[in-house]
């Protein structure tokens, strides 16, 4: 920072630099050129392919995530970004163990189960108990506690797919709240129908919180397995299940945020932050969640860098340990000030096309928000809220005052894959991925304060 | 047989019985009525749902398959079929153990693998070896044996989905031939890209034969895992894999064919045989393969029984132990004579609609073959070969001379599910299942020799 200021001071009298140090609008033709060229992007796919092939699964806090950081630093440096670095932090770390579910009676057979992050353990011998089943979370809440104590609670739901992903909130309660409440009500364990929209025998993991309650074994059945269990329960005879899940806490471990920059002409100007999360769940290479997001934001930033020097510095942040508790976002906000950002944005909803833009830049920046919408319109991106934007990892920065932009992706098939082993490279639709890069480079161009050759 | 002849002799003089003992054509109106009513069938689904929920997976030779036989006898008796029985046989039995694959270097991560039926074991400690990869079976055959000895052979392919399932033969060679040849060429183990058309992390199991070669560990990677391994190999660095597969042979065990009848008016007349297989692979409840087939043929036979008494006896056979070596079909042909059948048919290709009928009734029965085609046409079923029909379990009977009929199902998505955990009830399209029942009841009506009230 000192070095850049000195250099600026030395040359401060030249008229070109005076112009360069001022924000300007990017000409519509330049935006159109960047936007159109990005529709042929190959870098986002290459990054996604490389990370998810050469590292694969990379659970927050583990050695695999450390390999992912090393891979990322090397890749971002090779792309020519400046100031590539890791900001490490410590975090409590949970790792998966064995997991099996076996119906003992009346219809002996295996069911496919996976533990939620932070699940308790059954111990190595597992536990055997009767299953009490509920068709939805409300039915579970309404059930007498005497029915639940000592039992394995099973909660279902009927989550449909939708474009904006809102079903995750609407139908996710059995996972988000169920384990804590089941523990408080004395259940031996809880299994829920996967919070997912597919018909694959792929249980969807995800993080849970017990709050002050004692952790109990808590996991997801795949959608077909949950339906199988429901059919058994509807027959009216007691269903006894043997459940084995042996995850464990391995204490504080190191994670980190990987940061890279496209230096701006004015290092004192408020910055742009574009982000994704580098970690994944342990059961997949994490392509939709969120290798593709890292590919998209880096590819877009690279296109700005190659076009010239933006007025504002662009920070690329590949957050660590998002899945297991948004540790990276929290650590970043501790070290950085949300008020230093002109805008922050996060790509963490797969690789399908951006269909809507929302902003919360504030009423005084309505013209800028409109310019952004206008520039995105040729990509078939429609306008959403002027008062809402966000993302898991940028949430802490936004609570400090950072204005946000959301380039919202089509989530119609996101919850088919989310947190399952099926989140693999073959799911990428390259054309939709390219449209994402085009949307992000457009956003960066509009917000950049002008790009000088 | 003696008893039935005596009864016929006693009553031989009544005119009604003389009529009843002669085959006749079924009036077109009666066929149309049976065909149309079957499009609202619920029984095929009920049978499929019951078997696959209450028994679940039922590998040939195991206790689970015995439970399936007991379930079937009870269900077929409850439906009112005559002479419900089990014809037991003995068979060598293989059971799955643990299975894991872990890339040691250069890109450490788990791959999802499953053993083929009859696979050898790695032993409890597994084996570690370099992977030698081939893009297809021809490349494997062309490779020098020195490249293969002591290595883990990986063979890929590029199987597309198709309507008639012919891709299974065309692309299945890595599984059908690969393990034996890899053993003969000194490989430590073999893993192949699943013979499947999906993009799920669901390896497709299946039976293999080593012939006189020594069994080696042999299994399938899921399609995305195979593609992941291919990407690793294409990077040109040696890939080392740790493979653990511990299946074992548990000796001769009991299996059996479950048989039920719709008695015909003339017990001396050649019979009709409709069939499916009762067993499934151990990794799924076996809905498409082949619970639905059992539902279809039983539901169709029940509709004939409810309509009156056919001239010919209809035999329903739910074969045992098909997947693991067509043991049920072989045992049945040993005890029964293919020449006792007017026609034999088998439903074992899922639950999607019948799109084509083929026959090999012989040139002298062309009129009958045409009558069948005409009666199936309203179900959008087109005409195929007059000289080819078949099925795995009816194959031995046909080799003895039994004429065959094939009601060929749409296989476009069959190899998405085939031999994977994903072969579950939710995959059933009820309307297509009902069309199957309509096709089968139509076929039975045409071939029945007349149905008397």
What structural keywords apply?
homodimer, 453 residues, alpha/beta, Aminopeptidase, Glucose Oxidase, domain 1, 2 domains, eight-stranded mixed sheet, 17 helices, 18 strands, 35% helix, elongated, disordered N terminus
Which secondary structure elements does this structure contain, and how are they paired or packed?
The structure is a homodimer of 453-residue chains.
Chain A: H1 2-10, H2 15-20, H3 28-38, H4 43-54, H5 63-78, E1 82-95, E2 99-105, E3 109-111, E4 113-115, E5 127-134, H6 137-142, H7 145-148, E6 152-155, H8 167-171, H9 173-176, H10 178-184, E7 189-193, E8 218-221, H11 223-234, E9 240-245, E10 248-262, E11 271-277, H12 287-307, E12 309-310, E13 314-319, H13 327-335, E14 341-346, E15 354-360, H14 366-376, E16 382-383, H15 395-399, E17 404-409, H16 414-417, H17 430-447, E18 451-452
Parallel strand pairs in A: 5-6, 6-7, 7-8, 11-13, 11-14, 14-17, 15-16
Antiparallel strand pairs in A: 1-10, 2-3, 2-9, 4-8, 5-9, 10-13, 12-18, 15-17
Quickly describe the structure.
With 453 residues, chain A is an alpha/beta fold. Chain A is built from 17 helices and 18 strands. Chain A has helices spanning 2-10, 15-20, 28-38, 43-54, 63-78, 137-142, 145-148, 167-171, 173-176, 178-184, 223-234, 287-307, 327-335, 366-376, 395-399, 414-417, 430-447; strands at residues 82-95, 99-105, 109-111, 113-115, 127-134, 152-155, 189-193, 218-221, 240-245, 248-262, 271-277, 309-310, 314-319, 341-346, 354-360, 382-383, 404-409, 451-452.
